[in-house]
Design brief:
With 184 residues, the chain is an all-alpha fold. It has helices at 2-15, 21-34, 40-52, 57-102, 104-133, 141-161, 167-182, and strands spanning 134-135, 138-139. Strands 1-2 form a two-stranded antiparallel ribbon.
Length: 184
């Protein structure tokens, strides 16, 4: 039964995750918490690990949660379910690409969904900051300091070099700051 639940739940996530993996986090969170598969705190840990490991965070989360609920087979089922819609859509789009790109309704849909995706990504980022810095109405000063240092690093680097700071360097910097600050 758990395998069918994992398949259906992550198939829904895969079908309705517009805007990429970060747009999927709220949907994954809602799905996982509604099934009571993991706690909100455990999900935050999965998100952190999923973000810092190679691959799509959506696929990583499906794999972690599937493994947590149903072992190796659960991981395979959840991962397959979450990538299946994108795989099928890509096959369809490739076969119809020319006609789709010239269609005025498709162009309007893509333009119309952009603000929604941007809003979802911003809201997800803000919620993750708030949830991880303010835990049970208490400020986690260490998480707050790390968040401020990361924001400062992004803007300082951009100011000095006129370039964006690589996400790879942000992950490495986050790990170093976490080790330094939380081990004090």
């Amino acid at each position: 039964m758990i395998y069918l639940e994992l398949f259906i739940a992550f198939l829904k996530v895969g079908c309705f995750s517009f805007g990429g993996a970060y747009g999927a986090i709220p949907l994954i969170k809602e799905t996982v918490l509604s099934y009571h598969w993991v706690s909100e705190e455990m999900l935050s840990y999965f998100i952190a690990v999923g973000e810092s490991t190679p691959g799509s965070i959506m696929v990583n989360l499906a794999t972690y949660i599937g493994n947590h609920q149903g072992g190796i087979l659960g991981a395979i089922v959840a991962t397959f379910a979450v990538v299946l819609p994108a795989f099928l859509i890509i096959l369809l789009v490739v076969s119809l690409l020319k006609a789709l790109l010239d269609n005025v309704y498709i162009k309007a849909f893509i333009e119309g969904i952009k603000p929604c995706v941007i809003g979802i990504i911003i809201a997800t980022g803000l919620c993750m900051i708030i949830e991880n810095v303010i835990f049970e109405f208490q400020l986690d000063i260490n998480a707050f300091i790390i968040t401020l240092l990361l924001f400062f690093s992004i803007y300082f680097y951009k100011y000095k070099t006129k370039k964006e700071l690589s996400p790879i360097y942000m992950i490495i910097l986050s790990a170093i700051l976490g080790v330094c600050i939380y081990s004090i």
